[in-house]
Amino acid sequence: MSAEESASTRRRDAVRAAVRAGIIDADRPVVGLLDVRGVRDAVAALHAAFDGAAPVLHAFAVKAASLVPVLRLLADEGMGCEVASAGELALARAAGVPPSRTVLDSPAKTHAELREALARGIAVNADNREELARLDALVRSAPTGSVLGVRVNPQIGGGSIGAMSTATDTSKFGVALRDEGARAWLVRAYAERPWLTRMHAHVGSQGCPLPLMAEGVRATYELAEEVNRAVGRRQVRTLDIGGGLPVNFASDVVTPTYRDYARLLAATVPGLFDGRYGLVTEFGRSLLAKSGTVLARVEYTKSAGGRRIAVTHAGAQVATRTVFAPASWPLRVLAFDARGRPKTGDPVPQDVAGPCCFAGDLVAVERPLPPLETGDHVALLDTGAYYFSNHFQYNSLPRPGVYGYACAEGRSDAEGGSPSTEEPATEDRVRFVPVRRPQSLDELVEESGGGPHTGGLSALR
Ligand SMILES: *Cc1c(COP(=O)(O)O)cnc(C)c1O
Fold it and tell me: How far apart are CA 289 and CA 255, in angstroms?
């Protein structure tokens, strides 16, 4: 069985087991499922692709899956964390990720965040000239063990999704390298600050072709070489090449792979892997996306204007980008019956709608699927990054529970094909562990200003 086939078999077993185990039911009609083996395999592929001469820190971009047990799993597999807020830093700390393996990026770091990072020895990439001035003051005021760098925007252009493209001419991120005078300013800025020993670029994310990303790394590398020539020593010692490997949302095939990207980098920037520079990477989506599934119950089915509609419990609250920008973020949807078995039947076009009260809350439009019925389930695939971990609290829909799953090894593949009418034992071999409890209504009320503040507005005259 190929890696893709075994991942899809694990997913199918997990759906069945989740229904059987009751981690999804009428009262908790949507859940996030995470394939722990898939995550481990992705991390292993990343390590293998960059396993070469240069020392490398793979820092997971926490925003892609801001769940403490996920960060701990990744740390156990040898990863650090890239954080972009005090909240993300708190999650990384809660997961036990040491400061020496934590990198702080963010376009809007506060004084307090910078001070804390430098006190703890967390690496910081300054986003802009003003932030560099703040670092000057902090470095003068107290010694720090932090590795400090500057984020550059190589301004090499964008990919197919504007909102995911961070290296356009006018991007809000980093010091714009091609703007008039910027290059000379950067070289001087490094020359004047011997403690600036890192250079960072993150060219973009989903929708950016690999050659564009590699060009961004090349521009960063060349600037580092120029700085080191200008100062006459190897001042810039590490290059942080960001994340952004795009994910294939169209099938179970993992493409492009980390190996594809590492090969292209080696060809485009030969000096990158010769051992003179340490490397930092900041991948997010590509590590988690394919290991996550949103599973939701079909509450009702109906038709309108000749269109079949399945009203499910997965909408904008768990698939925000797909609902608001469906052309950029299409998701595959699988149909399962009330017992969690793959549905059969001739596909007919259906809208898969969510529970939110706005007309655009659709995760798929006119999607050919076996006819869905009330009590069935739909699975939104490849949702392990930026989906169930990035809840959107529309309609006060509670955050769903998230569970990690693993399937015990060694089962026969007898039921690998069409679903049998027998109850195979495969789902009994699936084990679940909670990653995040489903949010209770009490917690939701509390988070929405309930409790001691309830009468506050009425008392104000
Ligand atoms: C979001 C982000 C990443 C991760 O991007 P992915 O597309 O999820 O790999 C890495 N670095 C920075 C600075 C980011 O903002």
Answer: 12
Q: What does the pLDDT profile of the chain (461 residues) look like in tens digits?
A: 899 999 999 999 999 999 999 999 999 999 999 999 999 999 999 999 999 868 999 999 999 999 999 999 999 999 999 999 999 999 999 999 999 999 999 999 999 999 999 999 999 999 999 999 999 999 999 999 999 999 999 988 888 888 888 888 888 999 999 999 999 999 999 999 999 999 999 988 888 899 999 999 999 999 999 999 999 999 999 999 999 999 999 999 999 999 999 999 999 999 999 999 999 999 999 999 999 999 999 999 999 999 999 999 999 999 999 999 999 999 999 999 999 999 999 999 999 999 999 999 999 999 999 999 999 999 999 999 999 999 999 999 999 999 999 998 754 444 445 555 555 566 779 999 999 999 999 999 999 999 998 999 999 98
* β-bridge pairing 348-353 and 362-369: antiparallel
Cα–Cα distances in Å, from 14 out to 11, 313, 428, 430, 437?
5, 19, 10, 6, 18
Give the distance (Å) from ligand 1 centre to CA of residue 81: 11
Closest atom, ligand 1, to C-alpha of 166: 15
Report the SS3 class of residue 419: coil
Q: Within 6 Å (CB) of ligand 1, which residues are found?
A: 61, 63-64, 82, 105, 202, 205, 242-245, 282-286
Task: Return the biggest CA–CA distance within the chain.
Answer: 73
Residue written as tokens 């960001």? 242
Closest CA to 175 of 198, 203, 154: 154
Dihedral (C-alpha) 2, 5, 11, 14: value to the nearest 10 degrees? Answer: -80
Task: Quote the ligand 1 centre to 74 CA distance (angstroms).
Answer: 16
Residue 160 CB coordination number (10 Å): 14
- Show contacts of 121-124: CB within 8 Å, 24+ apart: 121/145, 121/146, 122/89, 122/146, 123/147, 123/148, 123/149, 123/198, 123/280, 124/148, 124/149
From the list 387, 389, 317, 388, the residue with the least C-alpha distance to 353 is: 317
| SS3 of residue 327 by DSSP | coil
Contact (Cβ atoms closer than 8 angstroms) between residue 184 and residue 175:
no
Six-digit token string for 31:
């859940």
Please enumerate in sequence order all residues whose Cβ is within 8 A of that of 189, keeping only pairs 6 or more positions apart, or say none: 129, 132, 150, 196
Going from the Cα of 64 to the center of ligand 1, the distance in angstroms, rounded, reads 8
Q: 0.85 cut: is pTM over it?
A: yes
β-bridge mates for residue 418, sequence order: none
